[in-house]
Predict the structure.
Amino acid sequence: MDGQWRRGYPIDRRTAQQRAKAFQDHVSPDFEYQVGRVLARFTGARVRLQDDGSTQQMPDVRLEYADGRVGFAEVWMALDAKHAEVAGALSREPDLSTPGLRREWTVRVSRDFRLKRDGRSFRQWVPTLLAEFEAAGQVYEFVPGPHNLAVHPGPLADRAAALGIRGLASRPAQDGEGLVRFVPWGAGGLAMDDWDAFHTWVDAEVNADTRHMRGNREKLRKAGGDESHAVIGVTMSTPWPVQPALTSDTRLPSKTPLLPQEFTHLWLIGAQISDRCLGWYPDLGWFDPTNHWATE
């Protein structure tokens, strides 16, 4: 396989089952391969996605440089567990055909959206609740959103809010058959920079005293190598102050991250929508790799 290596592209040692599972990820299909591509393009090294499950505590990525140096990388997504559960369920069936409804509904949900209520799936209880809105004449047509439940205050709106619905909109069904379309929440905040909050989050993430993060640090410690890269996938559930840093803004963070001794290099890569990624190297500080591709 190495004989077919192409500079700027990773060598994928994962099993076919691992690749298929990664490609089906609802947050960011095969994020690990995306990371391998960034590392390969920036470093010019021979980058291997090596963790095929054959050995315990094998780092996700191995980097082999032409001068003999070797590096390793651990890859993870900064993803809220509740966000993953709800977003995953909705992504599998974002639209529901509902013959019992007379309207096409858009249901905006929050992180607290109830996938089950009294033993009934959201595919069952949401249409039932919307039928009550229709019967009451509370159809949320031509109303502002997305936080618009207060347009029709009362028990129905209160119940919807308690079940994790944050906004509703509807229109008459086009073909006489109702439809429910789910829209997950997004990230947002004030249109202003908060670099202090950015640095606080980064430092807390890489130093987190969780089983997952302890495992990431331990794998890189045992692997040794000349470099140990921490690669964080920024998601829609990552705190808002981190999101603007991955936009097309040309500014860079200013503070040196407080990395634990197991990490020597740091990457922030958008696992969902982003315009750029960021890296931090001890000798370079913060940088945008699109300005420094080794393979371009």
Remarks:
- The two ends are 23 Å apart (CA to CA).
- The chain has a mean pLDDT of 88.
